[in-house]
Amino acid sequence: MYEERMARLRERMAETGTDLVIVGPSSHLVWLTGMSPHGDERPVLLIVSRDHAGFLMPALNVDSQRPFTKLPFYPWTDADGPGAALAKLLKDCGANRDSLKIALDETMRADFALLVIDALPGAARGFLTDTVSFLRGQKDEAEYALLKMNAVLNDGAMKAGFAALRQGVTELEVARAIRDFYAANGATGEFVSVCFGENGAFPHHHTGDRKLRANEAVLIDIGGRKDGYPSDMTRIGVFGDKPEGFDEVHGVLERAVQAAIAVAKPGVAAKEVDKAARDVITAAGYGDFFLHRTGHGLGIDIHEPPYITGTSETILREGNVFSIEPGIYLQGRFGLRLEEIVILRGNRAEVLSDLPREAFVVKA
To answer: What is the value of pTM for the model shown?
Structure first.
């Protein structure tokens, strides 16, 4: 798999005129090589040209990392520093001319990037947007299977969260029930946001000691991780009777999700998906209360390209995976959001979750 990804990267480098790709310890490196070397202040870099690739590697990590790759290492010691090893790696990659076009890992440490920039002062520089990120955006069948498995597991975690609702329970106690479900099923909780009543009106509410009262809306946004890939989903419910306006807002959001899913296809600009959801909410009179973008990509990272914003010209492609998550946030009352993860397959958006978007209703 990793040899195939490296071959695809070199094809993409040729298409984009990229001479060198420089990757630090990051999810980009995990995707490309399956490796996650120890990350500290000692520079670790994978440098790829169209006919060579190698790791700048601290000598003290060589033995531990050797079982994970056949690529050559260019080791350096604390006593000598990385300069000579980096110079040899760059020479072996053919980086001995001024007209280079290099792509730097935008997520790696700035001091790692500056090592390369200082070594190649005349190179034209960019990020991995058109190379590694571009390729990561098109999920293969193995990635689809892992994302689907995690989505279905997340369905169970969501049910466990709403099953934990009772008079006086705290947001943190519900979050603990969700994390316990992940642990019991071999996953880890990446994030758990439990929002009671007015706390749902804060899109990034931090779960706390707020106790649940009767006749309140509940918003739960959660994601776990198993076998290297994550999940992400938001559902809503009520404890007791629905507060005034709940059904209306829920209905608007359901129509917004459906509209965005209908538009999301290969060849469509990301901004058109955002517009489809936003137009429904605006037409219903809630446009000022939809406070964020419609979605974000999902893969090894919970947030990665493509981003579904009102200004994104990104053209969606087969295999793209991203969230559709319109929300309406009414300060002092409640906030509601419905979130699905979709993959573009067969000229349509396929929802990964099997859990309906109807509101959970729990008796007080």
So the answer is: 0.94
